Amino acid sequence: MKTRDSINAVKDMIRAPYAWDGYTKVMVMVDGDSMCAACVKDNYRSILRATRDNDRSGWQAYAAEIPWEGAPLQCCACAVDMRGMYAVRGF
Ligand SMILES: [Zn+2]
């Protein structure tokens, strides 16, 4: 993934935190953690700066993903269960 693609993924997630069918998008960080849409929005300046500057402070984004299946995913910033967020939406 190129830096520009990662930056676009962050911007896209802020504009559209849910995919077309209501699934919550998850931002996968370079260090392998995942972050929820609300935290991406709250911290987008830090994330965009770290992603642009290849800064390994923990804010560097890699790509947006949709957690289709698997174990519950915890946000690395607020510890919310991101699959739980999906369930709350009634899908
Ligand atoms: Zn969060």
Outline the structure in words:
The chain is α+β, with helices and mostly antiparallel strands and 91 residues long. The chain has one domain. A hairpin with a 4-residue loop joins strand 1 and strand 2. It contains 4 helices and 3 strands; from the N terminus they run H-E-E-H-H-E-H. Helix 1 (3-15) packs antiparallel against helix 3 (44-52). It has a 3-stranded antiparallel β-sheet. The structure holds zinc ion (ZN). The site of zinc ion has 8 residues, from helix 2.
Record the SSE blueprint.
Layout (H helix, E strand, L loop, with lengths): L2 H13 L10 E4 L4 E2 L1 H6 L1 H9 L8 E5 L16 H7 L3
Helix pairs in contact: 1-3
The structure holds zinc ion (ZN).
Zinc ion (ZN) binds next to helix 2.
Summarize the structure in short:
By secondary structure, the chain is α+β, with helices and mostly antiparallel strands.
Task: Please tally the helical runs, counting DSSP H or I stretches of 4 or more residues.
Answer: 4
Instruction: Please state how the strands of the largest beta sheet are arranged side by side.
Output: 2-1-3
Low-confidence stretches: 87-91
SSE topology string? HEEHHEH
Structural class, by secondary structure, is alpha+beta
Overall form: globular
Q: How far apart are the first and last residues' alpha carbons, in Å?
A: 30 Å
Say how many strands there are: 3
Mean pLDDT: 86
Major β-sheet profile: 3 strands, antiparallel
Radius of gyration: 12 Å
Approximate helicity band: 25-40%
Bound compounds: zinc ion
Strand coverage percent: 5-15%
Q: How many discrete domains? A: 1
